[in-house]
């Protein structure tokens, strides 16, 4: 009974202490207790897993820092977390409008997208791993579910990429829903500096295929980023010219289908005439694709290189045995270009 009364008393003291606004007062109150009460209080605090247990110990805001055995949040209700640093005012004295650190972007994806390297640095520094997952493993809400690193690569922010890579080198293995890695992203968007940096970190990225079997080189060709193509070619060499995706499509055919004459020229300078008769799985050549996609500049360029013979190359049986000439039937502007070559070899 006596024991219970003492415990009750002690608990009241504990509760009182816990409701005190500032940690500094915490200390003073301890010193004002009688020795006996202090001892009991200490025991109860210990049982509750609360430190400090001695009146001589300073209960400062620093004690609330991780990894504490005791957190104010525990008593304040779920969802409320406490951020305090030894140099800051005790929590309760901090006005709600206290100046925040100079971070313009609190969202890691926004920060990565706009190249706010200081914000990215700060967000990484304040990262609390959740379920063993870092902020750098987070996925955005886009269709492809990008990570912060993939976003930075897409935008070509090499400084942001470097800060992220330094913290978590395995971001190089991250891919999106289409299985595109950072090099795919940088190459698709013509981010030359990012491409160079990625190749320096890991030259093997160049061989990576996405869901459709496309390499970064294929994407650079499709989007017409000649400088990126050259950077990739310098590392990957000749084999890049003949690699095909899951549909048997080559970089040259991809460049023709999107009408990027600059990319066609860069490829032709390396691969020559053989590229003109390359076929994909349906037997379509670059000219088939250029005609079908209504890319008049590409059609002109291909015919200039290959002449009228290209117009009569048939596709495979199952795709209708169509020639580029036939595919252009409903495209008068393409037919007009072709006519000039039709009867010439
Ligand atoms: C093909 O492109 C031309 C412009 O280059 C355009 O006028 C024409 O409508 C396009 N044809 C088709 C079928 O999309």
Automatic annotation (TrEMBL):
Residues 83-102 are annotated as: Disordered. Residues 1-25 form the signal peptide. The keyword Methyltransferase does not apply. Pfam families: Ank_2, Ank_4. This is Uncharacterized protein. Keywords: Signal. SMART domains: ANK.
């Amino acid at each position: 009974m006596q024991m219970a009364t003492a415990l009750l008393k002690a608990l009241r003291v504990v509760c009182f202490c816990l409701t005190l606004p500032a940690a500094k007062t915490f200390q003073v109150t301890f010193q004002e207790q009688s020795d006996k009460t202090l001892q009991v209080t200490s025991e109860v605090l210990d049982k509750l897993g609360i430190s400090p247990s001695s009146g001589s110990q300073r209960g400062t805001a620093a004690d609330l820092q991780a990894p504490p055995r005791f957190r104010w949040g525990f008593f304040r209700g779920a969802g409320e977390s406490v951020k305090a640093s030894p140099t800051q005012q005790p929590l309760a004295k901090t006005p709600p409008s206290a100046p925040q650190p100079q971070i313009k972007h609190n969202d890691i994806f926004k920060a990565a997208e706009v190249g706010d390297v200081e914000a990215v640095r700060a967000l990484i520094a304040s990262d609390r791993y959740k379920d063993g997952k870092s902020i750098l493993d987070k996925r955005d809400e886009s269709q492809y579910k990008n990570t912060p690193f993939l976003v930075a690569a897409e935008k070509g922010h090499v400084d942001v990429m470097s800060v992220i890579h330094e913290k978590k080198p395995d971001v190089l293995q991250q891919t999106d829903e289409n299985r595109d890695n950072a090099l795919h992203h940088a190459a698709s968007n013509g981010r030359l500096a990012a491409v160079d940096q990625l190749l320096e970190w890991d030259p093997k990225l160049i061989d990576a295929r996405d869901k459709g079997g496309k390499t970064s080189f294929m994407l650079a060709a499709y989007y017409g980023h000649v400088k990126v193509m050259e950077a990739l070619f310098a590392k990957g060499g000749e084999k890049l010219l003949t690699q095909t995706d899951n549909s048997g499509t080559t970089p040259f055919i991809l460049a023709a289908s999107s009408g990027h004459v600059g990319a066609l020229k860069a490829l032709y300078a390396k691969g020559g005439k053989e590229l003109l008769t390359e076929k994909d799985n349906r037997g379509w050549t670059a000219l088939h694709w250029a005609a079908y996609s209504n890319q008049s500049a590409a059609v002109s360029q291909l015919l200039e290189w290959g002449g009228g013979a290209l117009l009569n190359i048939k596709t495979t049986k199952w795709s209708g045995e169509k020639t580029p000439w036939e595919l252009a039937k409903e495209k008068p502007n393409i037919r007009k270009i072709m006519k000039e070559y039709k009867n010439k070899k």
